[in-house]
């Protein structure tokens, strides 16, 4: 089946620094990737939709200048958390759609970000 | 986007069949119903998807009544490893490539030995 990977699986950074998280579709081309954030004991919250070759669409309340998303190829999307603060500590999960006609998302394993 | 409502939590003994029902009264004509399973600190894992009637695969069954305003995920003979959060999602991802799917609260299933 379709596999989505994320790197790193966990990261600890100091407040004020930036962190980049990669999301890759390993065996398929993803025209659309989604980025979610999940706080402990809560559901997944959609942050943005990333389409290859175009600007990401951010959900209401998500700062696009803080959470930079780049979808440069059909197999890679990156999320950069800029000037991270402790409140950005969370579990970040990406997902990908295989092609336009697909009614299924494939999720990555997630990245645990801790900002100290 | 159709909003979904699920029970917050459920308990079940090992070996029993578990049925989790999801309400989605505002489901649209082109919407599909998809169920995911999530373990702590892992990404959601696809379980099953359907549009109407009944769908079955090697791990679960999905029952959808004619009006499609609800759906029931059925897990046969659960084991301790089935303890997880189960999400019901409703959405149309076939049009235009930009449709997004929103997660509800999910149902935390606790399997008891």
Main sheet summary of chain B: 5 strands, mixed
The helix/strand class of chain A is mainly beta
> Order of strands in the sheet with the most strands of chain B?
1-9-8-3-4
Low-confidence stretches of chain B: none
Number of helical regions of chain B = 0
Number-wise, the strands of chain A total 11
Which bin fits the share of residues in helices of chain A?
Answer: under 10%
* Beta-strand percent range of chain B: over 45%
The unreliable regions of chain A are none
How confident is the prediction overall: mean pLDDT of chain B? 90
Give the ordered list of helices and strands of chain B. Answer: EEEEEEEEE
Biggest sheet details of chain A:
7 strands, mixed
Q: Kindly state the number of beta strands of chain B.
A: 9
Please bin the fraction of helical residues of chain B.
under 10%
Report the portion of residues of chain A in β strands.
Answer: over 45%
Order of helices and strands of chain A: EEEEEEEEEEE
Question: Terminal Cα separation of chain B, in Å?
Answer: 38 Å
Chain-averaged pLDDT of chain A:
91
Radius of gyration of chain A: 13 Å
Helix/strand/pairing class of chain B, anyone? mainly beta
Tally the helices of chain A: what do you get?
A: 0
